[in-house]
Amino acid sequence: MGVLRPPHPPKRVPLIGDIIGLDPVKPMQNTARILGEIGPIYQRRILGMRLTFLGGADIAAEVNDDATWQKAVPRPLQLLRPIAEDGLFTAYNDEPNWHKAHAILAPAFTQSSMRSYHDTMAQVVDEMCSAWDGASGDVDVAAEMTKLALETIGRCGFGYRFDSFGRREVDPFLPALKDMLEYIQAQGVPVPGRKVVDALTGRTRQHQRNVDYMFKVVDDVIADRQTNPHDEPRDLLDLMLTTKDPETGDQLDARNVRNQILTFLVAGHETTASALSFALYLLATHPDEAAKARAEVDELWSTGAAVRFEEVAKLRTVRRVIDETMRLWPTSPGYFREAKQDTVLDGRYPFKQGEWLMVVLQQVHRDPAVWGDDADQFRPDRFQSDEVRARPGHGYKPFGTGLRACIGRQFAYHEMILALATILHRYDFAADPGYTLDVAEQMTLKPAGFRLSITRRAGADASAPAPAT
Fewest C-beta in 10 Å: which of 93, 290, 292, 443? Predict the structure, then answer.
């Protein structure tokens, strides 16, 4: 088979390329739609820039091979570099701080460390539920899950309280972060003239003010911990300030510590909030699946005792709901890979060393070759252990792939399962029957305008924190 260039969208225009058909508001959903129409790979050209997207599980398996491909940091991630620089998510592969930070932070996600976070996670969930109990019975799901996830990573990771559920007005860090992500999302779509418009309207200046404010907050947190250190490491910040890289003996400098904190705040809260928001939407629109998950939680927590660390792992039905949610609506829309050497993909598409592409998980996770004819349906039981063993691993990559896969995967799972189980145990909930799913895009995808009507269940106990055992 001869070498080819990947197919392109219709209506390509000489010189300017494939600008027609761009969707600056929902670019990833537009990309997934095009992959569904023209095949498992396509390439868009815009003013000489090539953007290649993959949406088939088998072809994605090739670029998951770390011998030939590695993580890429192309334009969409480069836009985060002024904020997170060489943090774990945005570092280039040859930057030494990535290796140092990964080695230093790996102990923070062992089972013993996860046990130490459990009580704080439970406290934050309980604060959210207490706020819901005093509300009018109707909640903005994405907004609430965002507050929950940001509060959790703030306290567990850095000992910082946003007081998301105790104050009338939100902490100014949250709107600054939201506005910053919206700005970067817009910049990621290469629309000619956008920079000029943003400069003239003051959008660029506002973005810089947001970044400066976030820098100050994080720098103050670091300075306070340096002035008032703990006797022994309790969280991610302690590890970064006191631990040496076992290979080099080096510690992270204060600037890189700030980069890592911002990385965890941005990436850590966005992905978790997204998954929980979609999980609640899917359960609200599939009451039979909600009943199955709730029955499991009620059986485990029937005594009314506070949930313990070990009990979270027993919630296998709830875990399957989370897994199926991240299959249909991945925590991140995709991940980027670049060729480490000249290579040919799928036996026909040549890529030169350094050329990059994006694996679009919304399509990979719905590939009928892996997931069957019901790939678009919400069926958590497809994550029963026998079905998981029968499927190829490359068909499910919600946390990325390879050496640069998400380091906080177990933290996210524990947080999400605990939060979702508590909500199921404590509330009956229903979606507005007139609501049609509208998916908004920032770094992640989230259901926009989705509200839940919640009712406290009779006899449901609060999820008070239990002592870790």
Answer: 93
3-state helix/strand/coil string of 359-386:
EEHHHHCCCHHHHCCCCCCCCHHHHCHH
Taking only the tens place, the pLDDT of each residue in 203-257 is 899 999 999 999 999 999 999 999 999 988 888 999 999 999 888 899 999 999 9
271 is catalytic: yes
Structural contact between residues 9 and 38, judged by C-beta atoms closer than 8 angstroms: yes
Domain 80-329+393-456 - what CATH class? mainly alpha
Active site residue 406: yes
Amino acid at 7: P
Check: CB of residue 452 under 8 Å from CB of residue 276: no
Torsion of CA 211, 215, 218, 220, to 10 degrees: -140
pTM for this predicted structure: 0.93
Which one of 90, 271, 317, 444 is the catalytic residue? Answer: 271
Angle at the Cα of 241 (from 239 to 243), degrees rounded to 5?
50
| Dihedral-angle region of residue 400 (phi above 0 means left; psi in -120 to 50 means alpha; beta otherwise) | left
> Which candidate in 399, 411, 429, 450 is catalytic?
399
Find out whether 139 and 451 touch, Cβ atoms under 8 Å: yes
